[in-house]
Amino acid sequence: MNSSDFFSIFFNNLYLFLAWMVLCCAVLYLAIQKLAPAGYLDPLHFYFTFTFGTSYGIIVGLYHLELVSDFIFYTIFGYAVLFILSLRFFTLRSSRQLYKCVSFLMIPKGQGVGEFYALVIVYLFLLAFLMIQIGLGINADTNRFEQNRGFGAFVRIVDDVRVFIIAYLTLVVCRRWASSRSLGLKYYLLIFLILIIAVVSSAVNGAKFAMLEALYSSFVAIAIFYRKAKFRIIFAGGVFSVALVFALFVLSINLDKAGFDKEAQPTYMPAGSVLVERLMLRVLGNADKYYLTLPNDVIDKLQTDAVWVRFLSPIIGSTLLSQKLGYTVNDFNVGRQALLYYSPDHTISGGPTSHFDLFAYKYFGVFFGWLWVVISAFIFACIITLSKMGKGNIYYSAIIATLWLRGLPMLLEPPVGFAYMLDVVIIFSFLKAVCSLLPRKGIP
Questions:
Q1: Carries keyword Calcium (predicted)?
Q2: CA 438 to CA 441: how far, in whole Å?
Q3: Whole-prediction pTM value?
Q4: Least crowded by CB within 10 Å, which of 24, 77, 133, 143?
């Protein structure tokens, strides 16, 4: 079933799919709400509740229409149940040893002010370098993945550091407000700086999620610093309004670049606009790897390479590894294979992601797929545990917020999310080691 076939089926059975999508999102929300460090404003709800909720709703709809086999259906939902139960189980225990290990590797003595300034300088240089070399991601001619080819390592570092900087500066402002209930000119300038960093870095990144990630970094850091801070519901409305406006803005630019006539009649939603329809199709894109691979058991026909290649590729760079191995390694993740199954001549970078369940099924097999699901839950549970130990420490809270935000993509593309987390550990361990060798007189 290709995308066009699915869209026709979806809109012909619109209420069936929408009902299951809403129900699945609600079930996932209730299942993980108490685990999310920032409550209902936690990015876990974007990555898991929303993305997987809409995807699972589509899978149920396809299963109801007898387009997905019993075995595949129960395997996917078995992995979902196992992930949730494992996550809840592993978060029951608090590990002081894990906290000590993270502190030893990444947390400097004092308040980390010197380390923060050093990181800001590096960040500004890298951001300027990327803007000169590849421009803004929102202006990419094809897509941001193609535009970033050859610069992936720099893009990853900038994305890691920007989350930390926004989280850190947010906590500086919040601490000032909590102590005096007033903000001077300095702190208003800091707020303005946070907004500038969020907007510029999101434009360079080019992802529709980029602005939402910047906002999430602030809320997660606050929740860790103040230990489960409670946010008013108006914040949620504000966050998602800003994210929606940015997503529509990026989508509009992408449509212009692709030569779409935004005044044309929509294909599937005659009463709406092309822009709204494309946004709706983008939401359905959360499930593209499922509707492309589960009907007719296409998932079993996809090719794979060694699992070590999957994890090594984002760490050392897919271009370099492809040169060493003699084939394009990015073509062998599950999502990309699904795309190539229907469009063998597709050469532009990007495509569907794999999702942890399909990754587990294809790379660990029917009998051992559960192992990767449990490992994933354990890794996320470790970060959740660490998030409970950062009360009152700005530097620590910002780092754990960064680990959390950069680790959650492991749900969507496991090797990439793992590489993101490894980046964070390496960057801040290296930063601590270097700064410990420098004179710190007068620096807190």
A1: no
A2: 9
A3: 0.88
A4: 133
Q: Answer for the pair 90, 417: CB distance below 8 angstroms, yes or no.
A: no
Q: 369: which 2 tokens?
A: 């797929």
**3-class DSSP assignment, residue 297:** helix
Q: Other CB atoms closer than 10 Å to residue 431's CB: what's the count?
A: 20
pLDDT digits (tens, 9 = 90+) for 16-55: 999 999 999 999 999 999 899 988 889 999 999 999 999 9
The contacts of residue 56 (CB under 8 Å, 6+ apart) are 20, 24, 28, 76, 77, 80
DSSP 178-247: HHHS---HHHHHHHHHHHHHHHHHHHHH--TTHHHHHHHHHHHHHHHHTTS----HHHHHHHHHHHHHHH
Cα dihedral sign for 27, 28, 32, 34? negative
78 CB contacts (<8 Å, ≥6 apart)? 370
Residue 340 burial by Cβ neighbours in a 10 Å radius (0-12, 13-18, 19+): middle
Q: What tokens appear for 321 in the block?
A: 């590894």
Instruction: Pull the structure tokens for residue 372.
Output: 């990767």
Helix axes 152-180, 113-133, angle to 10 degrees: 140
Q: Measured between alpha carbons, how far is 430 from 424 in angstroms, rounded to an integer?
A: 10
Rounded Cα distance, 109 and 270, in Å: 61
What is the distance between the alpha carbons of residues 145 and 330, in angstroms, rounded to a whole number?
A: 11
Query: What is the tens place of the pLDDT at every residue in 319-337?
Result: 788 888 888 888 888 888 8
**Measured between alpha carbons, how far is 15 from 13 in angstroms, rounded to an integer?**
6
336 touches 352 (CB < 8 A): yes
The CA distance from 136 to 149, in Å, is 14
Residue keyed to tokens 């209420």:
15
Within 8 A by CB and 6+ apart from 43, the residues are 212, 213, 216, 220, 404, 405, 408
The Cβ of residue 232 has, within 10 Å, a number of other Cβ atoms equal to 9
Q: How far apart are the first and last CA of the chain?
A: 60
- What is the C-alpha separation between 284 and 280, in angstroms, rounded? 6
CB 397 within 8 A of CB 342: no
* Cβ proximity of 221 and 401 under 8 Å: yes
Q: How far apart are CA 410 and CA 418, in angstroms?
A: 6
pLDDT at residue 186 greater than cutoff 70: yes
Distance CA 112, CA 165 (A): 12
Q: Which tokens is 437 given?
A: 């060798």
Give the span between the Cα atoms of 108 and 432, in whole angstroms.
Answer: 6
